[in-house]
Amino acid sequence: MTKIFSSSLRCRLPVLVAILEVLLLVLYAVFVTYDDSTNAARQTNQTDPLQNSVYHVYPFFVDVQVMIFIGFGCLLAFMKRYGFGGMVFNFLTATFAIQWAVIMQGFFQFYHDGKIHVGFFNLLNAEFACAVVLISFGAILGRTSPIQLLVMALLEVPIFAVKNGPS
């Protein structure tokens, strides 16, 4: 007797997202720690904005966040049949790509002492990797399913991390 598998996105997408998120959670728990510049336990009380590195990187970080979630989200909502889907799939793909890029770029650029050290610079680079995925997503919108978009992000981010690695 053959087993019948549901091909519905209502069944497969939540399962895939849950598996990927659990995998990412385990990877973060095992391999990721804060960078010295962002670790609150190691910070002194620096009130001078010129000496605090957060004040230098944060405006770039926010600008790229707005570009990723608002800019690309609204850009992908232009199609009549895929307006809401474009925005929702943008959020899904962007959040997964950023999380995956922190891990992948961490292994190639920010890995020392057995841990990936996460800071603002790492998150900013992860958002650039996410932008690469979303540009590809814009080219194939309406032709792929959300599962295919997640697989595309799963494959595209490591390639970006290798190409954008330390030179």
How does this structure look, described?
With 167 residues, the chain is mostly helical. It has a domain at 54-167. It has five helices and three strands; from the N terminus they run H-E-H-H-E-E-H-H. It has a three-stranded mixed β-sheet with strand order 1-3-2. A hairpin with a 2-residue loop joins strand 2 (111-112) and strand 3 (115-118). Helix 1 (9-31) runs parallel beside helix 3 and helix 3 crosses helix 4 (120-140). The longest helix has 27 residues, at 83-109. The chain is globular, with a radius of gyration of 18 Å. Keywords: Membrane, Transmembrane, Transmembrane helix. GO terms for molecular function: ammonium channel activity. It is found in: Membrane.
Categorize the overall geometry.
globular
- Strand line-up across the major sheet: 1-3-2
Number of strands: 3
Mean pLDDT: 84
Q: Which percent bin holds the helix content? A: 55-70%
Tell me the span between the first and last alpha carbons.
56 Å
- Poorly predicted regions: none
Secondary-structure-derived class: mainly alpha
Treating each run of at least 4 consecutive H or I residues as one helix, how many helices?
5
Round the Cα radius of gyration to an integer and report it.
Answer: 18 Å
Portion in strands: 5-15%
Largest sheet, described in full? 3 strands, mixed
Order of helices and strands: HEHHEEHH
Main location: membrane
GO biological process, one term: ammonium homeostasis
Subcellular location: Membrane
Function: Functions as an ammonia transporter. May play a role in the elimination of ammonia in the gill.
